[in-house]
Amino acid sequence: MTAVVGIQDAGERLDGDPILTLDEVSKHFQVRTSTNPFHPASTLRAVDGVSLSIERGETFGLVGESGSGKSTLGRVAVRLDAPTSGTITFDGQSIENQGGEQLRRTRRQMQVVFQDPLGSLNPRMSVGSIIGEPLRVFEGLRGSTLTDRVAELMRSVGLDPSRAAARPRALSGGQRQRVGIARAIALNPRLILADEAVSALDVSVQAQITNLLVDLRERLGLTYLFIAHGLPIVRQVAQRVGVMYLGRIVEVADTDDLFANPQHPYTRALLAASPVPDPTVRRERIILHGEPPTPLNLPSGCRFRTRCPMAAEVCAQVAPPVVQVSPTHTVECHFAETSGI
User: Fold this and answer.
1) Are 319 and 257 in contact (CB under 8 A)?
2) 117, 133, 160, 202: which could join 177 in a potential S-S bond, CB 3.0 to 4.6 Å?
3) pLDDT at residue number 199
4) CATH numbers and ranges of domains, the chain
């Protein structure tokens, strides 16, 4: 696999100036589970009281199993979806209640790179038209000025400008994702949500796109909310990592600290399931029994207790507190302080 270059030391602290802050943010959906029209709808708690701060210029990795709520949280954070409750502050402004032209201006600064590089591109448009669309809509560029800017963007993501007339289906998966990235950076945004941006690609192509994202962050001063299914890819790009389970972020730490000293049993299980490139290294085997509970019927107390090998009576009765393990490491667990998990 190609080595990732130019990664900032995970232990290096940034300037402490958050560009995005979420405070007790929730996103609930009303879901009908019965064909009886008189049966009340149930509440699906996809995101439930999440607080999070992302600093300018950092890559914050967010990981968790399918159904953990990480993609929903990402969509709410960049206001593709409105939160049910809580506050979202972007670049010093509260944006959770924005709408109309005000929200349109904010969204210009918050772009998205989606998981499916083909499904996120209009198959009827050429590559040049796709990349140039935000420039036409927001900046009114036309003619040679637009053509030159599109060519510049294509070169910046490793695409030959001669492919501007091609349609998405004529490109490989990696090339299509480069088109999506070029479109995302066209308006010089401050924050990019990369929602499983490399998960649909071959392993060798994943490394290339990861390298590209890191390079663009350094060249353009971008901030990423990088969502992924597993921890290994996040380790390559993120300065900090949040681990999400059933709508809650259960652990946040600097990347090196999280991998060296995981505190939450769920984080430990994710690490134990991650492949190790060195065949001589043996990891503790942790088996989680059963499937994650449904967000329609969450367990009482700790949400992880039904699968946790350390669960005790208190876990069913009381939601775990947020424990400050270190100045940059927090965990939601009843036993973090007493047992040194």
Assistant:
1) no
2) 117
3) 86
4) 18-32+42-109+189-292 (3.40.50.300), 121-184 (no CATH)
